[in-house]
Amino acid sequence: MNDAEDVRGGVVTSYKNAPTRTLTAGGVTFAYRDLGPRSGVPVVFITHLAAVLDNWDPRVVDGIAAKRRVITFDNRGIGASTGSTPRTIQAMAKDAVTFIRALGLEHVDVHGFSMGGMIAQVIAQTEPRLVRKLILSGTGPAGGEGIKNVTVLSHLDTVRALFTLQDPKQFLFFTRTANGRRAGKEFLARLKERTVDRDKAISPISYNNQLKAIHRWGLEQPHDLSVIHQPVLVANGESDRMVPTKNSADLAQRLPNAELVIYPDAGHGGIFQFHEQFVAEALRFLERP
């Protein structure tokens, strides 16, 4: 897609060239990107541990933005957004709601990946009228099995990556099979497609605060997920090491109106490895009456 094709009728259609905007609310200046058609219910993307705007797979964003308005953002203290990053998922959810409402949105669909899926669950519980549908990918419920181990895994694989001169996401997001290794390299290459107006990297303090929030989420008592009545699409790879895949099955079983998609020979980043299938599944789910 060339730059001329990235904007049609004044609407940005490519994440690679979506301008980074800002708005201020609740004492925070939030950095965000906004693309896709203006009609219909917007889809707000909430991202993973250590991620900034540039960590979303452009194939996933562009695929969904072909049919729906997509909004990605840096939460408090992340990337180009100001403020101090909270140490609880609940506080992160409150900040996300502040951002969504500051955009003037009263009804949204939410796609939360990994830590973002934890934040999305809290938003659905605390602000049920705000959320129409949920997509929870590579994530798990409060108190979910193995979630408290994310800190140890992240540190180990970061060291592993340093010694092998690779990106930690190659180990954290993808399997070590031939398919997984190839998918990881392709994903990491896609993250570099945007060459101008790139976001700031997460600070070590913010990263540490996020790790503490995830650890606390893993130690919490299970939430009553029966209160989330919205339709939910749960997706993951079959071999997720970061948030063990059985948590996705647990979510789908405990949520009253959920469906589960598991991708074969895939890990935490299953939706990126199988981006074509995921986008098709997500659009089918979002566009269903």
Automatic annotation (TrEMBL):
Q: Which InterPro entries match?
A: AB_hydrolase, AB_hydrolase_1, AB_hydrolase_fold
The AB hydrolase-1 domain extends over: 42-272
Pfam families linked to this entry: Abhydrolase_1 (PF00561)
What molecular functions are annotated in GO for this chain? hydrolase activity
Q: Which UniProt keywords apply?
A: Hydrolase
What is the name of this protein?
Alpha/beta fold hydrolase
Q: What organism does this protein naturally occur in? A: Streptomyces xiangluensis
